Amino acid sequence: MTDSTELTVDDWRSRAAQVSLPTGSYIGGEWLPAASGQTFTVVNPATGDPLTEVAAGDAEDIDTAVAAAASAFGAWSGLSATTRGQLLCRFADLIAEHTEELALLVTLEMGKPISDAMSVEVAGAAAVFRYYGEVIDKIPGELPPTADGSVAMVRRVPLGVVGAVVPWNFPLDIAAWKVAPALAAGNTVVLKPAEESPLSVLRMAELAVEAGLPPGVFNVVPGLGATAGKALGLHPDVACLTFTGSTAVGKMFLSYSGESNMKQVWLECGGKSPNLVFADCADLDKAAEMACFGIFGNSGEVCSANSRLLVQREIADTFVAKVVEQAAHYYPGDPLDPDTTAGPIVSGKQLEQILSYAAVGAGEGQIALGGNRIGDAGYFMEPTVVTGLATDSAVVTEEIFGPVLAVVVFDTEDEAIALANDTPYGLAASVWTSNLDRALRVSDALHAGTVSVNTVDALSMGTPFGGFGASGFGPDLSVHAIDKFTGLKTTWIAKGD
Q1: By three-state DSSP, how is residue 154 classified?
Q2: Which of 268, 301, 382, 399 is catalytic?
């Protein structure tokens, strides 16, 4: 078999033409059409052409999936943590074994470059399932002291059926962030993928059963947010819901919880992350390179994207010129070309929204780079840098979710901190300085869940990822994510006379 690293764009195009595209919901280990018979179209954003029709699940399909998950809960939660962990590790192995197939599905449905789809998306999902498979039997309970010598045991217990709603920008990886800790803890899951990108996670769910997870433990219902997503949020038999997406939709899920059974809701709702570059930065070339990665990587479709560049005045002109030069590395191309570093925007609707912000930037400031759509086939956009904007411009304050970088100049450290914190979001931030005292001082002052010093958007499976304010609450990744999917149960055994 040909090594994936040796495949050419023509090889990948040939394989893409042959890959099997899922079309139904995956419930209880079976492929099912929507109860209504309705479907929706999944579009290839690199061409604008339809890929396939997928079952448009709604409330009835969510009912079926939740019932399947509830039925499987007892058997799954009754397994030892070690056994569940072993099955999740086997699941991780199967994901890795199907890297090419899953990567092709990701590339076709949302435009991620094939190299990133393999090395980031699929490899990341496999690693997350393996992490939670290996860690779950190493988390102890508690035996707190009691006044009279009675025995009090505190255990983490699974909640039941977990609903998960995930976005299109990392359709496998973020799904793994939600599903892996929930399953490891003994819950069962019903997942609704974004309508733009349901294919890869549908295939992944099928691999779960092949790995030995009982049917019904992991179910996937594709559908629209207003129907399937809402039904999952309102369902009385869903004990917990985890969501990554916009703040506006996150608020809807909080409302659904209050309208139904007060289910726990955990939200990761994006941001407007600042990247602070001080004049004492030791390596401006590296900082410029990483600034471009932080906003143009994944075509800017990243919730923690460093979309606000705050740069100290004495280096501003020099640094912006370096960023503009480095941005050429992210000029988009065919996502099936292994040399491509940036693909298309996920949809025509999303592209139009991003272009509207670029137009605002052109009117209120200066376009230092880009600002335009590329061609008329597919949804490609130039990497864009905007300078000279007022700090209250929508380009500076609102999440754009695309390859648009807003540059703001500051003079003092206090001013930089104030500008960075002038946002309702609090997901991530970056700081570039060679002064350790400044690094510690500024990091402590920034209102963000993760502050990356002399890098951008740092994360690992062992560190929590989440934020404050309008970025939501309840971290993904690390052992702390398991807390979201468990309840603390105390068993008190009274001391005998």
Answers
A1: strand
A2: 268
Residue 326: its H or E element: helix 313-327
Average pLDDT over residues 15-44: 97
Judged on CB neighbours under 10 Å (0-12, 13-18, 19+), 226 is: exposed
pLDDT tens per residue across span 387-439: 999 999 999 999 999 999 999 999 999 999 999 999 999 999 999 999 999 99
The amino acid sitting at 424 is P
**What per-residue confidence (pLDDT) applies to 1?**
45
Report the distance separating Cα 444 and Cα 423, nearest Å: 17
Q: Is residue 290 domain-shared with residue 424, that is, in the same domain?
A: yes
Spatial distance between the Cα atoms of 344 and 351, rounded to a whole number of angstroms: 9
303 is a catalytic site residue: yes
Decide if 89 is catalytic: no
Residue-number span of the structural domain to which 302 is assigned: 274-460
Tokens 């500024």 correspond to what residue?
A: 442
Structure tokens, 120: 């980031």
Average per-residue pLDDT for the chain: 97
Beta-bridged to residue 30, according to DSSP, are: 27
Asked, for residue 494, whether it belongs to a domain, the answer is no
> How many angstroms separate the most distant Cα atoms in the chain?
84
Report how far residue 459's alpha carbon sits from residue 383's, in angstroms, rounded to the nearest whole number.
Answer: 24
Q: Confidence band (pLDDT; 50, 70, 90) for 2?
A: low
The Cβ of residue 428 has, within 10 Å, a number of other Cβ atoms equal to 30
Q: Show the CA angle centred on residue 193, arms to residues 462 and 183, nearest 5°.
A: 45
The CATH number that applies at residue 437 is 3.40.309.10
Residues 451 and 376 placed together within one structural domain of the fold = yes
H/E run at residue 387:
strand 384-387
Catalytic member of 121, 195, 303, 399: 303
| 463's tokens | 């560190």
How far is the C-alpha of 412 from the C-alpha of 204, rounded, in Å? 49
User: Do 390 and 431 belong to one domain?
Assistant: yes
Q: What is the pTM of this model?
A: 0.96
Cα(first)–Cα(last) distance of the chain, in Å?
72
With both helix axes pointing from N to C terminus, report the angle between 81-97 and 199-211 in degrees, rounded to the nearest 10: 130
Whether residue 133 sits in one domain with residue 257? yes
Confidence label for 295 from pLDDT (cuts 50, 70 and 90):
very high
